[in-house]
Amino acid sequence: MMIVWEAKAGMEVVPVFITVDPERDNVEQVCECVKEFHPDLIGLTGTADETRPVAHAFRVYYMKTEQEGSDYLVDHSIVMYILLIEPSQDLKGISLLCI
User: Would you state the pLDDT for residue 11?
Assistant: First the structure.
């Protein structure tokens, strides 16, 4: 998929996954998780205080829930974004497209 985007749009695509549960998803777990999806996928984690504002900025809903018979469950929105960043710009000059 990335190759198609690069060829058709003439832009580099860098896929990024950010966990909404850093208490469970440490660096090693995120690293193993992203390997299952795509070799170029970058996985990010941090503290709850670091990930909360990122989720808020991208309007991502998430909440830990208790469900009978389940060891673990996090309810969350499923959204993909395309950030359009000019090579000469920093992140302050991004355009955001929600798909």
Answer: 67
